[in-house]
Write a structure and sequence with these properties.
The protein has one domain. 30% of the residues are buried. By secondary structure, the protein is mainly alpha-helical. It is 73% helix and 0% strand. α4 runs antiparallel to α5. It has 6 helices and no strands. The longest helix is centred in the middle third of the chain and has 17 residues.
Length: 107
């Protein structure tokens, strides 16, 4: 998860989720701040697949903040929030994105 190569970090996050290596959850939570959207997406997916209360809580807190930003008056802030919600995935994020696309169909 700390390798310089984005592809290695992306694959590591995916693989840790696939094998449900719970000991890696804290490292994956840190990876939610990675510079690569693909790494962040895979880390969120892995954390979601673990299903631990702590991991789900971290994802929910991020989603809560992004839901507020999704209704900001600034288009750039809304757009960034939508992109991050897409990366985090999950039912709440998907429902919010569906509503957002209905409100702003050309965005």
């Amino acid at each position: 998860l700390a390798d310089e190569d984005t592809e290695i970090r992306r694959y590591a996050a995916w693989a840790l989720g696939k094998i449900e290596y719970l000991e890696a959850e804290q490292a994956l939570i840190g990876t939610l701040n990675d510079s690569s959207s693909e790494v962040r997406r895979n880390a969120a997916g892995a954390i979601r697949s673990f299903g631990t209360p702590g991991g789900i809580s971290v994802l929910d807190e991020r989603i809560d903040r992004l839901l507020v930003a999704l209704h900001d008056r600034d288009w750039n802030r809304r757009h960034a929030a939508a992109q991050l919600l897409d990366e985090l995935g999950g039912e709440r994020a998907e429902n919010a994105l569906r509503d957002y696309r209905r409100m702003f169909p050309d965005r």
